[in-house]
Amino acid sequence: MALIRKLITTILIVIFFVSIVSAARNRLQILSDQNEDGICISMVETQGYGCEEHKVTTEDGYILSLQRIPKGISGKAATKPPVLLQHGLLMDGITWLLNPPDQSLAFILADEGYDVWIANTRGTKYSQGHTSLSPQDPAYWEWSWDELVDFDLPATLKYVHDQTGQKLHYVGHSLGTLIALAAISQNKLVDMLRSAALLSPIAYLGQVRSPLAKSASKDFIAEGLYWLGIHEFDPRGDAVVKLLQKICQDPGNNCSDLMSSFTGPNCCVNSSRTDIFLEHEPQATATKNMVHIAQSIQANAGAQTSPFNAATVNWRDMNMFQLSLMKMDLIRAQLGMIGLCGNRKCEAVRAKEEPQVRLRDTWAQTTCAMEIPHLRWSQNQFGRRRCAEGSHVWLGSRICDDRRCGQVIAKAES
User: Fold this and answer.
1) Where is the Serine aminopeptidase S33 domain (predicted)?
2) Is residue 125 in some structural domain?
3) pTM for the whole thing?
4) Residue 265 maps to a domain
5) Which residues fall within 8 angstroms of residue 26, CB to CB, at 6 or more apart?
6) Domain tally for the chain?
7) Interatomic CA distance for residues 361 and 182, integer angstroms
């Protein structure tokens, strides 16, 4: 009964604010039209690095932007293999560029001699093109991370592979790790990869630490938005902002620290960069994507879906997706992989799933530096040190007030 009352309250709140979504969308579109320089001009070239803009079209018609940093600050061409950086949920490729160059993973890798490529998934600011749809069309937003696995990731990887003629190193953050694990567990794309580095890796979602994520999942926020016809989940839109305000009023949710509300406890966020982060992030995603993630949290599953029928939403148990566990045991042992997890709950999940997962010696829970075949992780010239308990990778690299905390950078071995 309590669940029904909570659901009714959520629906009433959404109905009250749904009328302003269109106007909010129009204002955001005007703002976007005023800044169409692209990531290369606005974020990379301003730091003195060369940059190329690329476009990739997926099999289902989405046009994605890619940025390439082919040289370091010295101007010397890359001598090491390509590295693809894939951002996480509610972010875009700018997330790898928000810190100063000596603290941003994309620039660090370019200076180390890598051919750096930055991905932007569908629906983010610079990847809103489509061969036949507009972001104003509800059909444009009919996707979840299943489609990122099936279309975005293959198209992006293949494009970089074809352009460079080389296998890639892959670095994913958060949702970027989930789609990689899903693809690799299906034996997809492995032949184009040298290694996969997973920052804040996600395989099972029951251990999520974000207060907002847990509350939104518990209150069926995403399901309510989708049912009421809000197909774009825009964290900057008025409807979602009002819903977040409602969540923040729930007991136990302290949203005075907005970053921690989204990410959970975080030792290494540099508060001086928060305003810069909020200029560019968070980004929009599909409401259906949020539903998929929320229901995976509810089920404590790293789960892909069976075919989805939007016309048959079961409101009795809110189960829009039929979830099935990712087949982690199918991951090829010879692919170099490393994941930085950083908390004991993750270790407990790993131990529980150990018989099914062939990543036994490639997960770093409390040590920031380790070596495995094909991939060496270090923390730049400041040397190795152990991470604090509960540390969390954010914005693709660790951000600290003290530079000695360092950056996680990948150094590939030929």
Assistant:
1) 104-308
2) yes
3) 0.72
4) no
5) none
6) 1
7) 20
Q: How far apart are CA 193 and CA 177, in angstroms?
A: 14
List beta partners, residue 67.
53, 118
pLDDT 10s digits, 319-377: 445 445 566 655 654 566 665 554 444 443 343 333 333 232 222 222 232 222 223 33
Range of the domain at 378: 27-207+277-412
Contact yes or no for 81/380 (Cβ under 8 A): no
pLDDT exceeds cutoff 70 at 198: yes
The answer to which of 63-67, 85-89, 226-230, 319-323 has the lowest mean pLDDT is 319-323
Q: How far apart are CA 137 and CA 118, in angstroms?
A: 27
Residue 392: what pLDDT?
30
* DSSP structure class, residue 290: H
Which tokens sit at 316? 């009795």
Q: How far apart are CA 251 and CA 70, in angstroms?
A: 49
Return the number of other C-beta atoms located less than 10 Å from residue 124's C-beta: 22
CATH number where 153 lies: 3.40.50.1820
198, amino acid identity: L
| Any domain includes 128 | yes
